[in-house]
Structure to design on (263 residues):
């Protein structure tokens, strides 16, 4: 895959913050989009159609994916929640997306993973995709399981899968942690375009801006064509952080998970 212009891509979770921004950027690049979410999506351009689809609906996803060149899977629960809900939506839902892509003959799935599956490494660690996962919560566990599903579908079913470990997506970093983990909107688009167009069959990389104090490897993304341009250090003085602190920060505390468990 070397181009996206004139090709048909499906975006799940299209009504979300990243989905909305990515849709606009891809439409500008001449991509034909099918945007789907559990919430209604209003098409933004004549090159876009929309559908309301639940990730639980395997048959519906298979029908929706027919004729697509690829799927960008952004859908799912975006933060910590009860494990049962995360398993149903983020793990089983990702299985449905991959299986629907296989059945429909879609060549590639780009999966929106998360830095939170390595959030229990400390601020003193430099983390690469080859290192063992160390989730900072059940949300991170769900993303780790989904990445494993992506690798299985690449190895077993010859489906191209690219997992994008998204950093802290925001217009500007708003904390000491975010100064290390920030992903600017412009760099987010660069990351997903690289994942959509790379010639690599399967890969995992961190979508993080070129922050001077970042914790995560950029080489794996560069190998796919992702070269971020923004740096949180240019948005203000970098605040110090205890090197023993988990990279997940508050996300890594026990209470952050137990408060969200079903009673």
């Amino acid at each position: 895959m070397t181009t996206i212009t004139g090709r048909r891509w499906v975006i799940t979770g299209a009504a979300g913050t990243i989905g909305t921004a990515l849709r606009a950027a891809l439409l500008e690049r001449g991509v034909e989009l099918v945007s789907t979410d559990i919430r209604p999506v209003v098409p933004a351009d004549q090159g876009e159609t929309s559908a309301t689809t639940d990730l639980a609906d395997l048959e519906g996803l298979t029908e929706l994916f027919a004729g697509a060149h690829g799927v960008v899977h952004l859908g799912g629960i975006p933060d910590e929640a009860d494990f049962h809900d995360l398993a149903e939506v983020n793990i089983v839902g990702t299985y449905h997306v991959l299986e629907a892509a296989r059945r429909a003959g879609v060549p590639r799935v780009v999966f929106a993973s998360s830095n939170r599956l390595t959030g229990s490494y400390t601020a003193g660690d430099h983390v690469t995709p080859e290192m063992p996962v160390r989730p900072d919560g059940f949300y991170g566990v769900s993303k780790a399981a989904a990445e494993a599903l992506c690798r299985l579908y690449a190895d077993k079913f010859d489906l191209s899968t690219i997992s994008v470990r998204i950093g802290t997506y925001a217009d500007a970093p708003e904390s000491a942690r975010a100064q290390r983990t920030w992903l600017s909107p412009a760099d987010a688009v660069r990351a997903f375009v690289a994942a959509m167009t790379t010639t690599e069959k399967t890969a995992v990389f961190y979508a993080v801006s070129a922050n001077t104090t970042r914790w995560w490897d950029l080489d794996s993304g560069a190998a796919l064509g992702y070269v971020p341009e923004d740096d949180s250090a240019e948005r203000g003085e970098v605040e110090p952080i205890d090197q023993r602190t988990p990279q997940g920060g508050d996300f890594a505390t026990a209470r952050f998970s137990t408060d969200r468990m079903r009673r």
Q: What stands out?
A: The beta strands are 8-12, 32-37, 48-52, 70-73, 108-114, 160-166, 168-169, 182-183, 202-207. The CA atoms of residues 5 and 30 lie 5 Å apart. The chain has one domain: 8-258.
